[in-house]
Amino acid sequence: MILDIGTFEKTLNTEGVRAIGVDLGGHKVVAGRVEGNVIRERFEEPTDPSRQLTPVIAQVARMARELGADKDTPVGICIPGGIDAARERSLMVANFEGWNGLPLRRMFEDELGQCVAIENDANAYALGEGFAGAAKGMTDYVVLTLGTGIGGGIVVGGRLLTGAHGIAGELGHMVLGHDEPCGPGCRGFGHLEAMCGADALERKAREMGLPPVLKDLWLMRDPRVTDPRVTDPKVTDPRVVSLWDLALNDIARGIATLVHILDPQAVIVGGGLRKGAGFMELLEGRIYRYLGEPFKQTMNLCSSALDTDAPIFGAAASALARWSRSSQ
Ligand SMILES: [Zn+2]
After folding, report:
1. Rounded alpha-carbon distances, angstroms, from residue 214 to 200, 206, 283
2. In terms of Cα–Cα distance, which of 22, 11, 25, 35 is closest to 111?
3. What percentage of residues in the chain have a pLDDT greater than 90?
4. What is the pLDDT of residue 143?
5. What pLDDT digit, counting tens, does each position of 74-84 carry?
6. Most confident of 192-201, 215-224, 287-296
7. Per-residue b or e along 281-292, where b marks 16 or more CB atoms closer than 10 Å to that residue's CB
8. 172 C-alpha to ligand 1 centroid (Å)
């Protein structure tokens, strides 16, 4: 499977070349038609509430067709789960019961009657940032998405790192804690997502008797920030401050570790958490604390440029990679 960013860029920038990218999530499906560096048209719908295979595949196919999918416009679909190294089969799909171990790519292809590629959603996010976002022109970078869960993707030498079994780059499952239980799809302990994902923070807040508003605030207490919400007593509660403080440290430890292992050109942070006032500046300071020399000089922390469009670009790029290979 070709997952070379330079190939994507050359192919997508060829006059008249276009592809459909679909981001299939547990709650919504977002689809866009990518032409060159832009999404020409996009729309979203709630995911079929049954989350069953047949209606969801039909829904994705219909949305792709409405955007102009045809034999010259391949379709890339990113899914919230692990897929095999050949990008053919689903291994584990979170929140979609009965979707594990299926030849998903072929099933989508049969429904659409044309070329389809599948990719993991966090990996598609990383590919998208490399193709048209904050990592454009880079060959070595890491994308870490901090949201309800924590995901990511690693690009090394211009290629997505997929590992021996296709499931590399599960950055939310770096083990930085001890006994924190990870989600039902994982069942491990002490993973970053179980410590600092928005759901985990909300759970910790609840256990501390704090009101269930934390997830929506996404705020850090940076004295330079004049966001009026910072004076909200719900946010200035010392227990909230300490909760954020610990989370920030854990995320910083994770990023510093990635930098030490991978020596990337940049670490790109996506997801809702980074949008909190002052978050990126505070995080950067913490990362430096954990970095050793000479990484303090090479560290380059960036914010995602494409946000929720990143997986659309990445899925479209995956489609083009498969399409250009099969039409050769
Ligand atoms: Zn986990």
Report:
1. 11, 9, 18
2. 22
3. 66
4. 98
5. 999 999 999 99
6. 287-296
7. ebbbebbeebbe
8. 7
Instruction: Calculate how far, in angstroms, residue 252's C-alpha sits from the geometric centre of ligand 1.
Output: 18
The full set of domains in the chain, from first to last, is: 5-126+308-326 (3.30.420.40), 136-304 (3.30.420.40)
95 CA from centroid of ligand 1 (Å): 14
Q: How far is the CA of 102 from the centre of ligand 1 (A)?
A: 22
Task: Answer whether residue 299 shows pLDDT above 80.
Answer: yes
Distance (angstroms) between ligand 1 centre and the Cα of 72 equals 39
Distance of CA 48 from the midpoint of ligand 1 (Å): 26
Helix (H, G, I), strand (E, B) or coil at 305: coil
H or E, element range at 298: helix 295-298
**319-328 residues labelled b (16+ CB within 10 A) or e (exposed):** bbbbbbeeee
Q: With contact defined as beta carbons under 8 Å apart, do 308 and 314 qualify?
A: no
236: pLDDT strictly greater than 90: no
pTM beyond 0.70:
yes
Q: Mean pLDDT of all residues in the chain?
A: 88
**245 alpha carbon – ligand 1 mean position (Å):** 22
Distance 191 CA to ligand 1 centre (A): 5
> How far does the centroid of ligand 1 lie from the alpha carbon of residue 262, in Å?
21
Average pLDDT over residues 104-129: 96
CA of 254 to the centre of ligand 1 (A): 14
